[in-house]
Amino acid sequence: QEPFVADEYIERLAWRTPGGGSRGGEAFDPKRLLEEFVNHIQELQVMDERIQRKVEKLEQQCQKEAKEFAKKVQELQKSNQVAFQHFQELDEHISYVATKVCHLGDQLEGVNTPRQRAVEAQKLMKYFNEFLDGELKSDVFTNSEKIKEAADIIQKLHLIAQELPFDRFSEVKSKIASKYHDLECQLIQEFTSAQRRGEISRMREVAAVLLHFKGYSHCVDVYIKQCQEGAFLRNDVFEDAAILCQRVNKQVGEIFSNPETVLAKLIQNIFEVKLQSYVKDQLEEHRKSDAEQYLKNLYDLYSRTTNLSSKLMEFNLGTDKQTFLSKLIKAIFISYLENYIEVEIGYLKSRSAMILQRYYDSKNHQKRSIGTGGIQDLKERLRQRTNLPLGPSIDTHGETFLSQEVVVNLLQETKQAFERCHRLSDPSDLPKNAFRIFSMLVEFLCTEHIDYALETGLAGIPSSDSKNANLYFLDVVHQANTIFHLFDKQFNDHLMPLISSSPKLSECLQKKKDIIEQMEVKLDMGIDRTLNCMIGQMKHILAAEQKKTDFKPEDENNVLIQYTNACVKVCGYVRKQVEKIRNSMDGKNVDTVLMELGVRFHRLIYEHLQQYSYSCMGGMLAICDVAEYRKCAKDFKIALVLQLFDTLHALCNLLVVAPDNLKQVCSGEQLANLDKNILHSFVQLRVDYRSARLARHFS
Questions:
Q1: Exposed/middle/buried for 476, CB within 10 Å: 0-12, 13-18, 19+?
Q2: In angstroms, rounded to a whole number, what is the distance separating the alpha carbons of residues 241 and 602?
Q3: Phi/psi of residue 614, each to 5°?
Q4: DSSP 62-85
Q5: Architecture of the structural domain at 551-697
Q6: Domain named Exocyst complex component Sec10 N-terminal: which ranges (predicted)?
Q7: CA angle 527-532-534, nearest 5°?
Q8: What is the pTM assigned to this prediction?
Q9: Cβ distance 347 to 292 under 8 Å?
Q10: pLDDT digits over 578-624, tens only?
């Protein structure tokens, strides 16, 4: 049996043989194992011989059956060849008979066709004679039930009459024409009645007869007119039109031989009559009086019309139904779309101005002119270079003159304008129109609102030497930052899809970049002046609260305070400003501004400490103050600022260290890299500096 492994087979045989192994304490007997192997080999040889005989027998049987099968296949091939020859003979015979039958049919048709034409001509001559005599006696003309046959005859007579000379057959031609017209009217009337009764089969019969008449188009017009009776009873003309076309599409194929033409004519009639009239009524009412409602109605009506067109695309309207429906829509809206963007820009301009004015009125604020021209440009350049306030400071009373509500309203108006622009603009004009809308947004949101607030905020920043100054510019920064995120989101979400594949993209990106850079300059300037004011406030606190006796007390043994009052107030003020900066900004801007404030804060404290002389206990108090300043600096979470205060704290140790240890302290890790003049300047602040011993140790 497969899989066969010889080693395993031998192992199993040895294991079954008594004395074949030592497992279980049984003694190993090689003779018995050899005897067992010999016997087993003999059994395998016998089995092999038996199987070999069986294989030879099967091979002989297989060869015999193969010969018999080959013989049988040869006999079947011969039979097949005989059958194929018979089939070819039969096929040739059938072809011969078919040729004879076709020839006979052609001969019969050649005889029968002239005969039928002669009979038809004889009948027409008979009916023509009745018109010549002026009396129609045939049953086909008098029996109303045979109107179909009469129509066929009169249609043929009408064609014949057109070939006859007018001077000899004028009377009979007029009679045939009159009968032609009467039958045509009867058929149309019959079609109308059948339509009202809902008899589709009768309508189909009459339409088939009228197909060869000149009045067939009138029949289609009647059908279209009656289809619309009672179809437009609701307020939604677009939904009614879709339902009507759906119903007619199922029916028209059962009645007319050219259903796509009839359905297309129905749709054309709906667009040119019902929809055009409805659109005109809705738009003309507000076109000159209410631009907002006019634009909303135009967008809504155009959208609903294009949606209806999309539904109608499902129907068979001929070869180029897309172009057909587009022309119908264009015919309705062309007079409104030609000047759409001018109306849009005019409305957006007036609406944005009104939103801003309403906001400033609510604040009782008369918007002041920022001004342009030579003097203002000169002031702006000077301010950017010197960072000095030019002109009197304006008290804004804490008002930022930025409003998220105003911004949301402006962005919402612009968003709706972008949506209308996308829908109503011609594809070739879309990028240009979108850029004009974007320019309006930049003008009113960025220039008239944000930029004005920044200018007002800059003018409201007090000078750095003002006492108890209220600093509101960081609130302006915070709100301006939030507003610009909203502005950027609208730029990406609503403007980019409209201009992404046009040359206007680079123009829009450049315009956005310019306005950002312009605002960043003013924000940087305002933040810098605000930081100056913060440092000025700290100077006032230090000047008012710090006394010379703080660091050179009269009684060295009776100092009860841990740090000076000036230090407490400055740290309290700094912590408030740090929190305000964190709340006003985001991202890397927070670290950048805090680092700048921290550096200036350190410089202020460094210069402040240089103004005093320090006794031993005063030096200890200075160290305590600097330790408190360093604790305050940790709130900045800026490594550089903390490092500066660590160094300052190490410098303050020079105020109290024993003279013998000065050189060792100066060569310490934190002070080793400092300039020797800086170290010297701090040592000079000690009251005992002039003692020969100290001067000798430091020299």
A1: buried
A2: 78
A3: -125, 125
A4: HHHHHHHHHHHHHHHHHHHHHHHH
A5: Up-down Bundle (1.20)
A6: 30-138
A7: 95
A8: 0.69
A9: yes
A10: 999 999 888 899 999 999 999 999 999 999 999 988 888 888 899 99
